[in-house]
Write a structure and sequence with these properties.
The chain is mainly β and about 900 residues long. α4 (about 395-405) packs across α5 (about 450-460). The longest helix is centred in the middle third of the chain and has 21 residues, at about 520-540. It is globular and about 95 Å long.
């Protein structure tokens, strides 16, 4: 659960096990950092923190972790057992990059946080007091979608991994009575409007980027279901919109219906259609760089519906969906038709009964899809196969439901109304149902385990069994339709250079008491240091950098030289505050010890990604050769003009196994150039074992998984996490050495270097990989242009028009007396672009500011006794 920070100077707890969820929507509602932690940090005079020069802030929430064992009493017992057996959870926070990362460069970032233990009541001095595990709940400018994974350290009882979404809900507001409210409507009880709900509806949202999901089509009401936690917590909202005037041209009387027909959720906006009017509601997302006006209504809504007859039957198409990664086009309605080449050729998908109509279609964008028919049946399919299968309701579904009921999950004791199906951010198919218990309505989310139900369906379709009878029991064996026993990835490289994830590892301060119990002050310190680290990380990915000053080293600044002293103090429990801040408690992980198959692969120009796929066909015997010779691996690429796959096959008859060495390579056909992480082209690579469609399954510690078809999304272009930056340290050093004097502004700013007008300017640049931590000098050719500026204050900076950029930088316009700079000591035959821009390099980079009289920096008048300042915005490009 999310817990409010409160005031750490006066509070002893942040929330209780018995208290309700501290946010009304279950998501992040406050988006502003607070300085309630500042006074605590300032008091840590014997800790490796800067108590003089930095203002520390904290996030508005903690994340509290408990063990849920169906009842409060059993949960408390399990928590105590975990404490005494050494079980400790860890929290992995995955920060989803925004659609348009205008404040920050595109990046993939996650943080693994160790929790601190805090008693629910500080007056309790027993080891058996109720407690919770706490970590900060960070957020980052530019991101409003967050995924949390809670994992066990493997000690004590077996606790499965838990994954859930905690997103920013920008549609919550505080009313004039200081109570929580919803910006576009009123919260109502489920029973008021949903007891008669009978028909499900689709979820329309920006894939992986929409912080809220919204469900409409509640019969007879202007209401929607709103969630920012993927339906772990949901709110029924009566929408505050005015219905159209019945009988008008925009609202024909025969077509009038108060029901909300469609709702679309994007990263910051909701579009709600009632009858023929579309209403737009913009959320309060201060973490996003929004530049939009107020909410409004319009009538621009289009519904496309067409039919195409052939010689056998009438095909009615209700919708079209396109997957840009795999280049597959779906037409759905009275049947399902796919096109693998963007509409040139078509293929009918098998497995759909003739009389069923597809009501809505849900594409996962990672190789799977699901759809719901007009009689509320759920079907599932996978890209690369031409058959779908029924999940709900099927023989496999009934078997699965019976097993869940035996385990005590009574939501499977009857068929409850289906509200919707969707793919969550963990790539799992989920269903949302409506249940009434004791006259109270509940919206419940349940996973549809596709692989498990598919296995049960395959089992139910098996015609023959072999019965075996023993003295104490009997059993039976069913034939295995899969052509192999199991498969696994081998020879995997470190994933970070390919998945481009930057990973931080953090843990709370070390408390001095033997019980290991934390205080609100120690947790607040944890909050503030992590907040400051993310601030430094945001500064680190900007265009002015120092290869030696990464966020971790800047976090401790001049305290780094005393690292051994602070380690000695922490090891001996010497602290005036009751806890010690450990400098090695905050680190960057460049190579994760757990090597896994990456979820995505980014390939730079000419890059490649190699691994092996090992397939075991059974026990070595006389049938091994036949099994090996009938098992083949094929590879498919959504567009082989850009990416190609090479597979080398090795057969091992003595182990009844096959090893495939796979290499995925970029062909070097990416059009033009782009900035890091921008303009990437996505493609899908599919590795498919012959005759394995919907036949191969394996039991793992995470449950039953399907095998035989593996899919990987590959992006080509300049990968995220790389940058071309001004090497500020070397630039300042060389300017001082070559000009034979040191200069800085009277009031220097850490993020803006300062240079003297009469001195020559020697810029040096570096290429830095922020994922691996490697960096080196940029020695290539580039153009250097002033594209913006302002006099006296950075607040006066404006960007120049293309015509002004030519006037201020190009030799073609030197007669107009508008040049702001020129180059010195370059060869006479210096290369220039067609626009007249000089082409510089790492060896020829001597720049002189001239500020001719008609340029923006020319003839500045001093204000007071200080020389005037002028701020330049420089564009450096090797395009």
């Amino acid at each position: 659960m999310l817990c409010n920070l409160g005031d750490p100077a006066t509070s002893s707890t942040v929330c209780h096990f018995d208290s309700p969820r501290q946010t009304h929507s279950g998501g992040i509602e406050k988006q502003e950092l607070n300085n309630k932690v500042h006074s605590i940090i300032k008091s840590l005079i014997d800790q490796p923190v800067d108590t003089e020069n930095i203002d520390y802030y904290g996030f508005p929430y903690y994340l509290r972790i408990d063990l849920d064992c169906w009842s409060k009493e059993e949960s408390r017992k399990a928590m105590q057992e975990a404490l005494f057996t050494g079980l400790t959870p860890s929290v992995n926070l995955i920060i989803q990059e925004p659609v348009h990362p205008s404040r920050l460069k595109p990046q993939r970032l996650d943080i693994t946080m160790s929790p601190g233990i805090l008693h629910d009541n500080d007056q309790c001095d027993s080891d058996f007091c109720p407690f919770g595990w706490y970590t900060p709940m960070p957020f980052l400018n530019g991101s409003v979608v967050y995924r949390i994974k809670v994992m066990s350290n493997g000690q004590g009882m077996d606790v499965p991994e838990k994954s859930f979404a905690v997103n920013v809900n920008g549609f919550m507001e505080t009313t004039e009575w200081a109570e929580p409210g919803i910006a576009f409507g009123t919260k109502v009880a489920f029973e008021v409007m949903m007891n008669g709900f009978q028909s499900s509806a689709p979820i329309w949202a920006t894939s992986e980027r929409a912080p809220v999901m919204v469900l409409g089509k509640i019969p007879g009401f202007k209401a929607i279901l709103l969630t920012s936690t993927e339906f772990d917590h949901s709110t029924l909202v009566e929408v505050g919109i005015k219905s159209c005037w019945v009988g008008s041209l925009r609202c024909p009387q025969l077509e009038f219906d108060p029901m909300i027909q469609e709702v679309i959720a994007t990263e910051s906006t909701l579009f709600i259609r009632q009858n023929r009017i579309v209403h737009r509601f913009i959320g309060n997302y201060s973490l996003l760089p929004l530049q939009a006006g107020s909410s409004e209504s319009g009538t621009s809504f289009i519904v496309v519906d067409f039919s195409a007859p052939d010689s056998l039957a009438l095909v009615i198409v209700h919708g079209i969906v396109y997957n840009p990664t795999s280049s597959i086009l779906y037409f759905w309605g009275s049947c399902l038709i796919i096109s693998l080449d963007e509409g040139h050729n078509f293929l009918f998908v098998r497995g759909i009964p003739l009389l069923k109509q597809i009501k809505y279609f849900s594409l996962s964008y990672h190789g799977e899809y699901a759809f719901v028919t007009n009689d509320e049946q759920v079907f599932w399919g996978k890209e690369g196969t031409d058959t779908v299968q029924q999940l709900r309701v099927s023989l496999g579904w009934r078997l699965f439901s019976s097993l869940q009921l035996l385990k005590g999950d009574f939501s499977y004791d009857a068929e409850y109304p289906l509200l919707t199906v969707f793919w969550d951010s963990n790539k799992q198919l989920q269903e949302v149902i409506y249940i009434v218990l004791n006259n109270i309505g509940h919206v419940v989310k349940r996973e549809i385990p596709v692989a498990e139900i598919s296995k049960y369906n395959a089992f139910a379709a098996t015609a023959s069994f072999a019965a075996l009878y023993f003295d104490e029991y009997s059993t039976f064996n069913a034939p295995n339709p899969c052509p192999f026993y199991w498969e696994t990835f081998e020879n995997l490289p470190q994933p970070e250079p390919y998945n481009r994830i930057q990973h931080y590892l953090t843990r709370p301060p070390l408390v001095t008491i033997s019980s290991g119990l934390h205080s609100v002050a120690s947790l607040a310190t944890y909050q503030s240091l992590l907040s400051h680290l993310l601030k430094l990380h945001s500064e680190y990915i900007q265009d002015i950098g120092d290869p030696a000053q990464n966020p971790i080293s800047r976090l401790w600044a001049d305290k780094m030289v005393y690292e051994d002293y602070f380690f000695y103090m922490a090891s001996n429990g010497v602290s005036s505050s009751g806890f010690n801040v450990e400098m090695d408690g905050y680190s960057r992980i460049y190579e994760n010890p757990d090597i896994t198959f990456p979820d995505k692969v980014y390939l730079d120009l000419g890059g490649s990604f190699s691994f092996s796929l090992y397939i075991n066909t059974g026990s070595p015997n006389e049938d091994s050769r036949a099994a090996i010779e009938h098992t083949w691996l094929s590879s498919e690429v959504s567009d082989d003009r850009f990416v190609y796959v090479a597979v080398v096959r090795h057969e091992f008859y003595n182990r009844a196994a096959i090893l495939h060495e796979v290499t995925i390579s970029d062909r070097g056909a990416f059009p033009g150039q782009s900035l890091a992480g921008e303009g990437l082209l996505p493609f899908t690579v599919v590795l498919k074992v012959s005759d394995s469609d919907m036949k191969c399954f394996q039991q793992t510690n995470l449950g039953i998984i399907s095998q035989g078809l593996n899919r990987l999304t590959v992006y080509i272009g300049c990968p995220p996490g790389k940058r071309l930056a001004l090497d500020i340290t070397k630039t300042l050093e060389e300017c001082t050495r070559l000009n034979k004097r040191y200069f800085n502004c009277p009031y220097p700013a850490s993020d803006i270097p300062c240079f003297y007008y009469e001195d020559l300017f020697y810029p040096f640049f570096l290429i830095q990989d922020m994922v691996s931590g490697e960096s080196g000098p940029f020695l290539g050719s580039y153009t250097f242009n002033v594209v913006g500026g302002g006099a006296y204050s950075r607040n006066n900076i404006r960007y120049y028009s293309p015509e002004e950029v030519l006037m201020y930088n190009s030799n073609n316009h030197s007669s107009t007396k508008t040049l702001m700079w020129t180059y010195e000591d370059l060869p006479g035959a210096v290369n220039r672009t067609k626009e007249g821009f000089a082409v510089l390099s790492g060896a020829t980079n001597k720049i002189r500011w001239i500020c001719q009289r008609n340029s923006p920096c020319g003839d500045l008048v001093a204000q007071g006794l200080m020389a005037p300042d002028f701020y330049f915005v420089i564009e450096v490009s090797n395009k």
